[in-house]
Amino acid sequence: MVASAIFITDLTGKPLISRNYRGDIPLTSAIDRFASYLNEVEDEMKKPVFHVDSGGEVLNVEDVGCTGAGGETFVYVQHSNLYLCGVTCKNSNIVLMLTYLYQLTSLFQDYFTTLNEESIRDNFVIIYELLDETMDHGLPQSLDSTILRQFITQEGNRMADDSKSKPPVALTNAVSWRAEGIKHKKNEIFLDVVEKLNLLVAANGTVLHSEINGAVKMKSFLSGMPELKLGLNDKLVFEAAGRGGSGGGASSSRAGKSVELEDIKFHQCVRLARFENDRTISFIPPDGEFDLMTYRLDTHVKPLIWVEAVVEPHRGSRIEYMIKTRSQFKSRSVANNVEIIIPVPPDVDSPSFKSSVGNVTYLPDKDCVVWTIKQFHGGREYLMRAHFGLPSISREEADGGSNSKGGGGGGGTDMSWKKPIGVKFEIPYFTVSGIQVRYLKIIERSGYQALPWVRYITANGDYQLRMA
């Protein structure tokens, strides 16, 4: 059992819609207790999981087992101007409740595009249908919008034929994420390996933090019920092959090209037991677009695009920037739509720019200069100069100012405007981790031929270079 009831409220705790699945709690009083918690507890003291005993006292969840006081446990998430809350009076799986609430939020967004108080009020009927289909007597059921849309439409379920009004067979199948009888004129599957690089670099060039967040995204247009097997250059797979007697030289050579993935999270279609046993990613894919897996690598990565700045304050209330950027990846790769975002003081005026490539734009509402380079080839270096009037720099500050280099630089006494330099980019046909798809096998009993397409993309995540 997971939840006794689910309800949605506004930010003050006023109920908008609710469903009592088990009838083992007084729902009205439970909602009142939740509203009291929201209004009486300070924001910094609120927790996403809390317990209220039969006397109305709020307890820490870890203390509930010691008191034996009864009452209800509340689990809630916030989205926009709403709270989605589950409540139970049993010893339930809290993590499963949180997962259900987050997936329910995604399901509502898929149906209504925007999930807020107004969309809840406009869609009471369909929300009740979704609540009834996604949970049965406190146990979560399918939350796959692709399957639910087959019998819960925006107009409601108005089918007259009893045979058509039955839910899809996929809901009761072991493969609940895929309907039977799918047919495509052309059988294709598209696989994108997308990596985002989070990087923080100190002004002296030291990499303070680097992290790769990756995702294997798929678009499946395959008929029938295909079985897919995906092979990656996973380090553990290569090590297992080496222990199997593939030869020391070959094993070490292949292991050198392997990648050690961390924090792997799979779509529900992946057979986890098979992966745990031999690291084989075997699955029957949903139809359409989905994320097969996500992963993380906490590894040292040098900046793919380096930015060096020199900021010179001058007499006569003006300031000049010299920005040099360098691509530190192989020349055969190209970074597209590069944006280098340089912070400037909030009161600069009279901007003028000169750059060896690209376009430069001053954005006064964001107090920054954006240098845009449409295509940045590997191994290249470019220069940009920017000149501003700056009334806030006095003659004394200009006399005492000094040039700065590194991730940025500057003069003057008030450095509050010196946020880190940000960089945005996208590099196709390239992964910073070196992950590779070794094979993608498609097996279907009808024996049709399918075309797999694989693409690699590296983009910026939170990519910042601090100013000196």
TrEMBL record:
Keywords: Membrane, Protein transport, Transport. Residues 395-414 are annotated as: Disordered. GO terms for biological process: intracellular protein transport. Residues 403-413 have a biased composition (Gly residues). The keyword Lipoprotein does not apply. Residues 186-466 form the MHD domain. One of its GO terms (cellular component) is endomembrane system. Pfam families: Adap_comp_sub. It is found in: Endomembrane system. Belongs to the adaptor complexes medium subunit family. This is MHD domain-containing protein. It comes from Stephanodiscus triporus. The lineage of its organism: Eukaryota, Sar, Stramenopiles, Ochrophyta, Bacillariophyta.
